Amino acid sequence: MTALKISRRLLLLGATLFAAAALARQPDPPGQVRAGEKPVNEAYLFAHMTHADYGRLYYSVSLDGLHWYRLNDGKRITDDYRGHPDIARGPDGTYYIAGNEGDSAPTINIWSSRDLIEWKRFSTYTPDLKATPGYSQALQRIGAPKIYFDEPSRQFVMTWHTPHLEGTPEDAERYWASQRTLYVTSKDMKTFSAPPKRLLSQEMGTIDVFLRKAEGKYWAILKDETYPTLDWVTGKTIRIASSDHLLGPYENMSAPISPNFREAPMLIPSPNGEIWYLYYEQYPGVSYGLSVARKLSGPWYQISGYTFYSTWDKYSLPPKVRHGAMITISRKQYDALVQRFGIDSPAQAERQLIEPPK
């Protein structure tokens, strides 16, 4: 066969493969409602920070839990808030958001809102970290406080992570591997149980832990914060543990739900209420992944996204959004947020995603 014929065949093969790729279509994620069907979950709010303005409060919203659009022209919702946003709704409909000035700050600050539009300072909590039973070596660090309201016990649980070892030039990762998740409870988000206690008994690094109740159990969704090695292949992944009781023990630690080097998980039910959507960030601000399952116990699989090809991307978020919290809201609340802050159009969002985030 001549070189010319080989070249022509290679060109033909390349054209065929390109055409096949162009015709490829990913199936749509499960959990969406059919035309004319009323969703169980009408809308969603994503309270987050951004890569350029880390630790401040921004909003994006969605009607399907898959496609998210910025509010407020990509500007802060309030200048007062600082922290890693996490929102919980209390028994009287009041929303609470926790934050802090930085991991080394001694206090956790709490804001409240009736409408998710106006936030005001509500309370401040200063935990005595070294009083934590069995954890007297705790360092003065409070990472990413999160709030969960438990309907059966009518109490809030606030969690955060605190390390007990400083990093060294030879082993910077030991700081992160020493993170342990602590908690306190509260009936009113003004007075808190004392002292803090450890939520998880496992001797492994954990951060970004939040609680949920579903399917007759309590679930702790967490980041395994030990560095990945051949001896610890689950490191820096999102995992789930379960318990029959709100405060544990949390056992049955799952296999990784995400790839390595993912953090800040967020969990929402699908519009039809039959599927779980679990988002997680590929840090630092690279992209978001999405895994889905029928049950929190799994099995989980990943949805295609962040390829920047419309035929492959089945979910989309504004570029350079960083971690926070996703919650379900009503269509009335969604409309009020859009009316107050304004929303990016699909065309605006598409223009933002023409170039992959850098």
From TrEMBL:
Range of residues in the leader sequence: 1-24
SUPFAM superfamilies: Arabinanase/levansucrase/invertase
Keywords, alphabetical: Hydrolase, Signal
Gene3D superfamilies in the record: Glycosyl hydrolase domain, family 43
GO molecular function: hydrolase activity
InterPro entries per UniProt: GH43_arabinanases, Glyco_hydro_beta-prop_sf, TAT_signal
Domain of life from the UniProt record: Bacteria
Keyword Hydrolase attached: yes
Protein name, per record: Glycosyl hydrolase family 43
